[in-house]
Amino acid sequence: KDIARYLGPVRVPTDIDARITRPGIAIGLAWTPVGGDVLFIEATAMKGKKGLTLTGQLGDVMKESVSAALSFIRTNARELKVDPDFFDDLDIHIHVPAGATPKDGPSAGVTMLTALTSLLTNRKVKKQLAMTGEITLRGAVLPVGGIKEKVLAAYRAGIKTLILPAWNRKDIEDIPANVQKSISFHFVSDMLDVLKLALEPEKETKPFKKAVKNPKAHAKAKRAKPPVKIKKKKSAILRKVASKKK
Question: HSE of 183 in the Cβ direction (CA atoms, 13 Å)?
Answer without folding.
Answer: 29
